[in-house]
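Morning - adenosine-5'-triphosphate inputs below, output right after.
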Amino acid sequence: MKASLSLRAGLLSVLLLILLVGIWHLSTATSPVSGRPAVSGAVDAEYAALMGNGPAAATDKKVDGFPTPLQFLHVAADKLADPFYDHGPNDKGVGIQLAHSLGRVALGYLIALAVAVPLGFVIGMSPLMYRALDPFIQVLKPISPLAWMPIALYTIKDSSVSGIFVIFICSIWPMLINTAFGVAGVRKDWLNVARTLEVSPLRKAFQVILPAAAPTIITGMRISMGIAWLVIVAAEMLIGGTGIGYFVWNEWNNLSLANVIFAVLLIGLVGMFLDLMFAQLQKKVTYAE
Amino acid sequence: MRNKENGNPKVGAAGKAASAFVKVEGLGKRYRADQPPVFDNVSFGIDKGEFICIIGHSGCGKSTILNVLAGLEEASSGCVIMDNREVSGPSLDRGVVFQSHALLPWLTVEENIAFAVRSRHTDWSRQRIAAHAARFIEMVGLAHAAKKKPSELSGGMKQRVGIARAFSVEPKMLLMDEPFGALDALTRGVIQDELLRICTETHQTVFMITHDVDEAILLADRIFLMSNGPQARIAEIVVNTMPRDRVRETIHHDPQFYRIRNHLVDFLVRRSKSIQQAGSPVAELATTRIVRPGLEETPLSDGLCEATTNSRFTAVA
Ligand SMILES: Nc1ncnc2c1ncn2[C@@H]1O[C@H](COP(=O)(O)OP(=O)(O)OP(=O)(O)O)[C@@H](O)[C@H]1O
Ligand SMILES: [Mg+2]
């Protein structure tokens, strides 16, 4: 019964994929070379010319306008064949760009983790700290991470470090709040067990409170990672230089939509992979009561 | 004996306060200043190796007394002295079996027990801790489930793990808050037998809350009866006059069982309420009677009571 359900769901997914690709194909492939509506074609051409990318500049390898699925596959295969080449600042392999983005996310995220979990512990354990820090959290939390960018760029100066700061500031809140919430919500019975056993504070923190709050903390970490991955693309579009976000922006400027689509898909896949990692972690620390 | 507050401990010789292992004096607890105390002027003593059951209606403050004994909660007045030292916080010397078993759900049965053992014996090696834990898992008959998580156990099994955990730290006194409240009658009987055996073997001092009159008669040496709250108190101490080698299968063949039982039930359905209604906040009136149902001709008359009985009590009885 369960197997047949997942089988049917899988079949349906494949069907939907075929349908989507079919629609894509039909709406782009009416005429392979210049079958696109004249007006939009003209606008595109004009725009391309403006961007210094006129028909003359277009190489045979480049796909103009919205690619057909087949053209897209060609581009994707090309990109995947050599993901790590480096031909100067504006022409790097997609693997290198991804590595830059992942590196920034990892760094900003880890710093946030190192701050949020201990601080969350303190806030969760001490009602005084909770009340004292609550106004700060409430005000800082809703600020769009990108709004920090000018301040970060001005004070830090280095654009790459600014990116890391933006990741830090956006991923700290869910982890902080979830840790505090999880720690404050540890069942009183378990704490009483620790008290009657005269467990030392450190052992209590690591062997009672941490495992008890772990599912909530990991949920916060998962949400933070999701947000960090959303924000890094936007941040890199702003700061430029390297990263998958910059790649998307750059390819848009090149009017290479096939590359943009490829990068967008890649962002989605990496995001899914990151989320799956946390799902696994979550499964490990979740306990049944 | 210390008497911190203006409470008025009135425990006679048979109240066993003078030489007792645990002494409770003038204990009172008030959660909110604008409300009457939950209980007031509670005094009693417990001997080493004694098994005490406390019975009373829901909300009269039994759990609160137990938590104060455990050191998990602070009394508003009075004090608890165990082994000549005042109780001022939780301690490994007082093991607690929680009503909700309170096992750590992310640990297996043996890890749960080992957690407790390591707390007592911080210097022991891993193997020694495991061996010690295994002994207590075996004691409650759960060797086959040692590797299971609490969520994979039945209610009775969980409760047994809770008991094994409390025993494994070898406390001087065991405190149990309705340990079998959530169990069916059959499982309850099995665990009662086990508990009785273990306590006899180890001469464990036990203070246990129960709602089950039969359970109290089977297990307890003395049964404390609490009047209804607010301002509840221990109105009577019933001495269990049944032979110590009583067992569950045959206990109800003894006519003495019914004398005690009737006395307890009568207290719960009638007197617990009227004592509270007739209650006056004057501390001197709140005394505890010691009763031996069946061995005294008229167990409810004050002439045979060992402790001072007040006039209001006779009016009730
Ligand atoms: N934290 C608290 N704040 C205020 N009142 C409380 C608190 N805890 C308990 N009480 C009150 O104290 C009284 C005694 O509670 P307690 O839990 O000791 O009762 P109990 O005798 O154990 O009842 P039961 O048999 O139902 O477990 C109750 O009337 C309850 O309302
Ligand atoms: Mg209770």
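Note: The radius of gyration of chain B is 20 Å.

O.
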